[in-house]
Amino acid sequence: MDQSNYSFKKISDKHGVVTYYTNPTKGIKYTNNNQILEHYNEAFASIGDKKWIWIFDSEGFSLSLVLDTQAGTGIVGIANLLMGKYGDSLLEIKIINPTWHIKTLLTAMWPFLNKQLKQKIKILDDRIYSILEFV
């Protein structure tokens, strides 16, 4: 699988905590949920037992992504991976540069997320953030 097609990337590994970054609008392919979920499953599995943080940059996240059945199914699949076998080592999901579209999507998904995952999601909407702040 060509991982350059997806935006989930390791940006640092400090003090036993691995930080990953994604911006769904930067991914080249959104047409195949199986490949996207396989990519995330492989990426999460590669972390092993290390603790990790996910920086989710929603800059450019639009209504078309929210309404896209493929993207929506992919997001639900990723949430299921995090509530299943990969959630224990996840420390936090930091949502940076949130658009109202991502906030709406998160609100719609909120009742279906488990308590542990809900506690790990932090929306940082006080200003514009750069990925460099988290490296």
What does the main sheet amount to?
5 strands, mixed
**Euclidean distance between termini CA atoms:** 26 Å
How many helix segments? 5
Order of strands across the widest beta sheet? 1-2-3-4-5
The gist of it:
With 135 residues, the chain is α/β, with parallel strands linked by helices. The protein contains five helices and five strands, in the order ββαβααβααβ. Strands 1-2-3-4-5 form a five-stranded mixed sheet.
Task: Note down, in words, how this protein is organized.
This protein is an alpha/beta fold and 135 residues long. It has five helices and five strands, in the order ββαβααβααβ. The chain has one domain (3-134): Phosphatidylinositol Transfer Protein Sec14p, CATH 3.40.525. A five-stranded mixed beta sheet has the order 1-2-3-4-5. β2 (17-22), α1 and β3 form a beta-alpha-beta unit. α1 (33-47) runs parallel beside α3.
Secondary structure: elements and pairs:
Elements: E1 9-14, E2 17-22, H1 33-47, E3 51-57, H2 63-67, H3 69-83, E4 90-96, H4 100-109, H5 115-120, E5 121-124
Parallel strand pairs: 2-3, 3-4, 4-5
Antiparallel strand pairs: 1-2
Helix pairs in contact: 1-3
Keywords:
single chain; 135 residues; alpha/beta; Phosphatidylinositol Transfer Protein Sec14p
